[in-house]
Amino acid sequence: MPVPVTIRLQENDFDVTAEIAALTRGRTDIGAVVNFIGICRGDDDGHTVNALTLEHYPGMAEAEIGRHAAEALERWPLMGLTIVHRHGRIAPGENIVLVVTASSHREAAFQAAEFLMDYLKTNAPFWKREESAQGTAWVEARHADDAAAARWTKS
């Protein structure tokens, strides 16, 4: 049975409960579902953020995310996978990204979700511009995020 994979990039918000229900509906073989929801912060280490604007290259972004989803399916015994990533202007408190992984057991679901989020945070083809009282600025990658992603590199 092929593993159901959903990858969507969209401007509108998503419904976490509906996404999990769609992934697990009618499935009695799934024993673990892990989800991660990234939310836009209004305060980033004492710096007030009014909004984020995420840009991407349509088509290329989905293909790149798909490559990493395929790698997750190779590395862990997943039974389902959903990735929803928003683009456009996002206000503090709004959802940015959702990763849902399903497996027979929790370890695979947790590890695959972490792997995918580390990739999305560091290497997915998105560009983030932050709005604040000081104006707008492109957000640079953080070394801690790169270090987290490096642990998944195959040697």
Keywords:
4 helices; 4-stranded antiparallel β-sheet; alpha+beta; 4-stranded mixed β-sheet; 155 residues; single chain
Global shape: globular
Percent of sequence in beta strands: 35-45%
Number of helices: 4
Which structural category fits the helices and strands?
Answer: alpha+beta
Helix percentage: 25-40%
Strand order, largest beta sheet: 1-6-8-2
How would you characterize the overall build of this protein?
This protein is of the alpha+beta class. The protein is 32% helix and 36% strand. The chain has 4 helices and 10 strands; from the N terminus they run βαββββαβββαββα. The strands form 3 sheets. Strands 1-6-8-2 form a 4-stranded mixed beta sheet, with helices on both faces. It is globular and about 50 Å long. The mean pLDDT is 91.
Summarize the structure.
It contains four helices and ten strands; from the N terminus they run E-H-E-E-E-E-H-E-E-E-H-E-E-H. Strand 3 and strand 4 form a beta hairpin.
SSE arrangement:
Layout: E1 5-10, H1 16-24, E2 32-39, E3 43-44, E4 47-48, E5 51-56, H2 60-75, E6 78-86, E7 88-90, E8 95-103, H3 106-122, E9 126-132, E10 135-138, H4 143-150
Parallel strand pairs: 1-6
Antiparallel strand pairs: 2-8, 3-4, 5-7, 5-9, 6-8, 9-10
Helix pairs in contact: 2-3, 3-4
